Structure formats: structure tokens, C-alpha cells
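Sample intake sheet
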Amino acid sequence: MNTYYQVLGLEPGASQLEIKKAYFKMIRQHSPESDPEQFQKIREAYEQLKNAGDEPDGPVFPPFSEPFAEKMMDQIANCRKTGDSVRYRDTAQEAWKLFPKDIQFLYHLVLAQRKCGNTGKAVKNAELLVSMDPQNKWFQRELAVSYIERGFTQKAYWACEKAYELGCRDLDFVLMYASECDEYGEFTKGRQILTEIVRREKRWAKEEIPELLAAYHSLLELTQYDANVNSAAVNGELPDFAEIIGELCHTVEKYSLYMDDFIQELGMIVYRYCRHYRSSAEFGKLGELLSAIRKAVRTEEKNAWLDDVEKEFSFQQIDKDPQYSDTIKRLFEACTYLDELPAQVQKFAVLDCRLCMIEEREEILGQEESLRNRFPVFWEQIRPYLEELKNEEQLPLLKDKLLKTYRRIEPDISGGYYYEKYPAERIKSRGIVISDGMSEQPYVRAGKKVGRNDPCPCGSGKKYKNCCMNKKS
């Protein structure tokens, strides 16, 4: 970065006004017609620095000790730009041997060695780099990255902490530091640094949105595992789960024009965290987030994908709410998730629930008002079944009708709850009649029931339906 300032004749850390003034002054001296090569350098330097603010995004180095050292740096920059990692490493290593006073060559050697997979050498050189300037946050940052890539979790955590104390605050670094906090079990610390990031008072650029959303996701994850989430030790300064979701919802609304590219990442946050047990307040905030995401959608395909997230969200709400019975929860699942299964399975699942509803009539009708208010789509789906329950006189006929179909389907499909909850109905379906008190032993049919097309038991040679069956009737 220091070379860009040098191209414009500025000191590192110059303000945006100074950068702009220097740029216009330089292009008048080096026009594209008279000096196209220098003009390109000036233009590149300005493009790199105009959005950098007053804070450079890399270490600032002193001037080179010799002119040839600057030429070697140009070679290094070109290798880095073209992606030639091996040549980048070898050139940086040669330059560091030739010019040991120019610490920027050691800095680039560390970066190049990591690119080439030489993580052990990168660690040693990063440690040397930090020993030469312990208060340089960028050197400390590269030491942390080198430790991480080498797999030194404890050393990486402490190096990240030192770099953070020295002032490293870029999004990539903070996400890396938070990840190390997670690995090292320092959940509260991770939450602190991520909270600082997501609450920054700034206008986020579109290209920063992925890292911002990643920061929210990491913050939610650390909050989930932090035992001190509700502890007085954090003095109320850190947000709980519901507050984080509320702030994320506000961010989605504020940057809604950017969010269509990130619908799936946002939807997965709702999908994932609604599956963990959440309080009603947390579910409420997740619902607000889902509504904000829905408003940001620009394509029908993503709308359809969000439909599945919304189904899961609604199911988890019902499933985790103790006011709803198991039968209502299973009926919601049958109405929502069985559309890809064979029609016979869908039919059986609904029949299973409807029979349970009849047995639990009063309890089910007591839940109707809440279902209508909170889950109107589901309530509309099951409204005909609820209306049937209200007609008490017709319930015996309805039950017989449903049982007739249920008994026919049940032997071929497993997983029914009706017979499990009401075993007497299973016994009846097997042809066993419960004793009326005259005998302690139930009556069991002696042999196989004669079918209408079977030979008549009387021995006439006719079919049963054309012989004794008619006589019986």
C-alpha cells in the first residue's frame, strides 16, 4: 500500500482530500498521451486509495534502502497480481536476502510461503517479523493467520487477541478471530467482538454484505453456546438471541436492495434456529426476520424456496408449543410434508389424525381459536374436519366410515398412531369382540370367514352368494 502513496507523492495515511488533490495534480503532469505508463500507475494508485479512508488497509513501510529494492518490489507485486505463487515466494526470499533492512520483503515472504503451503516456514518468518516490530498490528495479524494455517489453536487465539488489541478491525480478521474464540471456548469474547462489528455506525457496501451476514451468523452461534449469555458478568452489554435477530431484521430491511443475492443464507438462519427450542419472544423475532426476507425477494424461485422455510418455521412453532396436542402436531405434519409421498400414505396419515381427533373431540375444539389466529393457512386446511367434530350426532357414522377405509389401508402401511393410542379399536378390527360380562373369555371366530365367491359350505357346489348367503339374508 505504501507504494501507492509514493506514486502520488504522499505520506502514508493521507486524507481523502489530499489523495484527490494529488491525483489531479499528477495527471496534469503525466497525461495519457505524453506518459501513458506513468499515467496508468497514477490511476491505479488513486483507485486503490480513494476508498481506503484515512486508515490504510495494510502495513505502512519506510522508503526502500536502495532504488534496486524498489524494482524488486515491482517484480513481487507483478507475481502476486498474476497469481504466480512460486515465483512470488522465490523473489521475496531473494529480495529479503539482498535487502535485510527492508522489512517489507520479509512481510511478503510470509504471505508467499503460506500461498505455497510452506506453513512451517511462514510461522517462523512471521514470528521474526513480529519480533522486529511487536506493535505493528498487521504483522501480528499475519502471525495469527500463519498459526491458524499451521493448526496452532492456542497460539492463534492469543495472536488474534494481540492483533485486535493493536487495532485490527477489518471484517475478515474479526470473523477469523471469532472463529478462534469458538475453537478455544472463549464464547463471550467472541460475542463481544462480533457485536462491535454488527453495531458499527457505517453504511455497508454491497460487497461487504456477505461478511456482515457471516458476522451475524457467527454471533448467533456463539450466543447459542455461551453459558454466560444471560449472566450478570457481561453487564447487559451483549445482546441475547432475540436482540441479535431483531438487529439482523433491521439490517435486512435497511439493505433490502442488496438482499436478493443472499436469500438462501438468510433463510437458513431462520431454518436452523427455529429447530432449536426457542422462547415465544425469539420465535416472534424469527417471524419478523422471515417477513423481512420475504419482502427482499425478487425472484419466484427464491420465493418458492422460502415457502419451505416458512413451513418448517410454522411446524416448529406448533411442535414446541405445549398448548397444542400431539394429534394437532401430527396433522400439521401430514398436511404440510407428505405431498411428495404416495397418495395412499398421505390418505392414511390424515385418516389416522382424523380418527384421533374424534376420540379427543373436546380437546381439539378447544385449540381451534388459537390455530385460527396464529396459523390461519393451516386452520383453513383442517376447517372441514373441525366442522365435522362440531356435529356430535353424526360422529358415530363418521367414525364408522373412516374406520372402514382405515382398516383396509392400515395392514399395508406402518406408523399409525390411532391403534397405538386406542388399542381397543385394533382388537375390534381383528374380529375380536370384547366380552359383555357373560364370560371371561372373548369370542373368537372359529375359522376363516366365508367369502361371497367361495364354494358354499353346504356342499351344493354353488358359490356362497348364489346359495346359502341369500337364504341367510
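Comment: The mean pLDDT is 85. The longest helix spans residues 300-319.
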